[in-house]
Request: fold
Amino acid sequence: MRQTILVTGGAGFIGSNFILQRMEQGRAPVVNLDKLTYAGNVRNLDRIAGDKRYEFVHGDIGDRALVQALLGQHQPRAIVHFAAESHVDRSIRGPEDFIRTNVDGTLALLEEVRAYWMDLTEPARTDFRFLHVSTDEVYGSLGPDDPPFCETKSYAPNSPYAASKAASDHLVRAYHHTYELPTLTTNCSNNYGPFQFPEKLIPLVILNARDGKSLPIYGDGQNVRDWLYVQDHCEAIAAVLAQGRVGETYNIGGWNEKRNIEIVEIICGILDEMAPRTGARHRDLITFVKDRPGHDRRYAMDAHKIERELGWRPKETFETGIRKTVRWYLDNQDWVRDVTSGSYRQWIETHYSN
Ligand code: NAD
Ligand code: DAU
Reply:
């Protein structure tokens, strides 16, 4: 029986955690197709580099000839599609890459996958799955008393990033509705944990605080996000892949809403303990800076459906997950040094200069 899974974007933050988790649980072979943008890092997968069940392919999901060849060669039983441009601030500075990968790239992938799937014979055809990894940001912004997003909430994406993910979600939905491609879509809240590129709030704050640099908080710091430890997200994806109902979407969240200022203060408190500054507290580094344009005020996820249907709930609390995360960044200086060179420094200088 076909076992191989083709993962796209598996050298990024969530994709690499997903592959490591899968391989450690002794499951099927994995082929990882990744373009290695600034956010992709093959070192994330060092632990399994020599594993015969794992193959890395450097390439673009928009390269249809390459995708076609990989599908023909590996005959995967599922695609888990992480590859995307993922940073909201970068999408505000330049949306083109987001449309190219998140929309055009997803369409190219869907087209090749559809052709491959149509040629499969039973039972492989029925067993096949295309799992699309998406975000809570497609639903827009909530007021303080609004109920959390459920799967039937209408889409209202506010940033170019969110709009590009919403478009890709709609394409996946249409491929199921029109062509009966066996798709699954997951929409998840903010992840944190090992291997997250330090342009995102949590790793940025950990590393800036460690280095005694200012901790930039956009606007008044009262924006709310729901935070989920990355390994919980990966387990949720595995559960949806194994037992999710074809054509359905599943919201994934941590039941853990927090204001940005709270997050930063918690990290500062942990660092005061794990890596104290002489004569000062880390929270003294907090600086309020110009707000993100169109900054969504609040996201919250109603993750009852995945719990009810698939029995998934997050294992990690924010308190346990954030301690592990801070420890990981303190203990992995080589990884940090690797990813914070060149283009990273340029981004930080340009983005935070005014
Ligand atoms: P990331 O930016 O860390 O990684 C993205 C990966 O995709 C990188 O390895 C990059 O090289 C690769 N990639 C980019 N363009 C590509 C292309 N054209 N072809 C092949 N590979 C390409 O992103 P992440 O945070 O790991 O997010 C993964 C997915 O999960 C994304 O689809 C994102 O929208 C979604 N998501 C992320 C979060 C979060 O909090 N990080 C939450 C919900 C959903
Ligand atoms: O909600 C899921 C989404 O979470 C994913 O789809 C995205 O890929 C992922 O990047 C993330 O988007 P956010 O914009 O919520 O994450 P980010 O870490 O960039 O910002 C989190 C919050 O912190 C947000 O309200 C903006 C704020 N922020 C961020 C940075 C980088 C600051 O206040 N200061 C900062 O320097």
